[in-house]
Design brief:
Keywords: Membrane, Transmembrane, Transmembrane helix. The chain crosses the membrane at residues 362-385. Helix content is 13%, strand content 49%. It has 387 residues and is mainly β.
Length: 387
């Protein structure tokens, strides 16, 4: 039988035990149970090597009492934490209150990593939570859809590009810039803007070449706050477009008028592309006069032709320059000059093998006939002398 003193001591010990507050371990367990991570996000959501990202973690006190937090941090060997000491001291989070923690991370290499977010409680214990972070360095793509077979000096040509985003996340602020010391451009840059994952956009850049060289197209874009570039270079070699319009003059006739001359003929488009806004006139030293200062033909399709009449005056010149002006389908201006010989109404084409009515002196038949007559006369004289 247990004596009364022992019973009193046991009862007193039980009362003392019940009166003592919960231990630190019990308190830390209670704190961890009240605090939870309700969300986290990374901007950009997918980094590239060397990128800096902001990671925002939101925690909430779901309990009914204040929870004192000593510090918050992120632990990882795969990423650099640039603001590791930002939350060396935190303080209390009240019931049903959320708190935001923002960390700055820098990617060192490609891969999928799990940096761990930690909260250390003031009364002991901690809360850990993994934050998945993806690093993938694929750039956006820039390619050429269309460009001229041959670039022509000082002639506008369009280069069509397509820019696409093969990444898993959206990129922003996309700008395309053409760069060259061999050409000029009507636009120094083209703003594309945002490109969602797997989205692409087509653009055209008008180019005016001046010499042989190359054109570099630079696509500048942002992944989060990080600026990146993608380049595409094409050669720039000048030449003649074999498919372009080529007006040729035929059937030239020249008449003298009271004031000067009238030249008539046909213009044929011997090229493979349309000649637009075709106009025939003359230039210095010839001076166009009314009624036909210039003759507007308009558009000539390949193998199409049209007649013209042009009036002009010229002083003491053997030749008069006939000027043909026209445009291509892109609105580029072209000119072609043909010298017309006036004295014998013949046509002389500079830079062309074809010419009409260009024989000088007497026709060949007349020359042969004169020689035959001379031979007959000489034969008759010789016959008479022999007799």
């Amino acid at each position: 039988m247990i004596n009364k003193p022992i019973q009193l001591i046991s009862l007193l010990a039980l009362l003392i035990f019940l009166a003592v507050p919960a231990s630190a371990a019990d308190t830390s367990v209670s704190s961890a149970a009240q605090i939870s991570v309700i969300s986290y996000e990374s901007n950009p959501s997918v980094l590239m090597k060397g990128d800096i990202a902001t990671v925002k973690v939101i925690v909430k006190n779901t309990g009914t009492e204040n929870v004192d937090i000593k510090r918050a941090t992120i632990l990882t060997k795969d990423l650099n934490i640039l603001n590791e000491q930002s939350y060396a001291t935190v303080g209390a989070i009240g019931p049903d209150v959320s708190k935001e923690f923002v960390f700055t991370l820098k990617a060192k290499s490609d891969g999928i990593f799990y940096p761990r977010f930690y909260l250390d409680f003031s009364n002991g214990g901690s809360l850990g939570y993994p934050l998945m972070t993806k690093v993938e360095s694929s750039p956006i793509e820039l390619s050429v859809l269309e460009k001229p077979d041959v670039f022509q000096k000082d002639v506008k040509s369009n280069v069509k590009l397509v820019v696409g985003n093969p990444r898993e996340n959206t990129v922003n602020g996309v700008i395309i810039k053409p760069v060259s010391d061999s050409a000029s451009f009507t636009q120094t840059s083209i703003f594309v803007g945002k490109l969602d994952p797997n989205e692409n956009r087509e653009i055209e850049i008008e180019t005016i070449p001046s010499k042989d060289g190359e054109i570099k197209f630079i696509a500048e874009y942002r992944n989060g706050i990080n600026i990146h570039e993608t380049e595409k270079t094409i050669p720039l070699i000048l030449g003649e477009d074999k498919k372009s319009a080529d007006p040729v003059v035929n059937n030239i006739e020249i008449q003298t008028t009271g004031k000067g001359y009238r030249v008539s003929g046909d213009v044929t488009n011997a090229g493979l592309k349309n000649a637009k806004s075709v106009v025939v006139t003359t230039k210095s030293p010839a001076v166009p006069i009314e009624p036909n200062r210039l003759y507007v033909i308009g558009e000539l399709e390949p193998d199409d032709f049209s007649g013209f009449d042009v009036d002009f005056i010229v002083e003491e010149q053997d030749f008069a320059p006939l000027l043909i002006q026209y445009k291509d389908e892109d609105g580029n201006d072209y000119t072609k000059t043909i010298d017309i010989k006036l004295k014998d109404s013949s046509l002389s084409l500079k830079g062309q093998d074809k010419s009409e009515n260009s024989d000088e002196g007497l026709p060949l038949v007349a020359i042969i006939l004169i020689i035959a007559i001379i031979v007959v006369i000489c034969g008759a004289i010789y016959y008479s002398w022999k007799k």
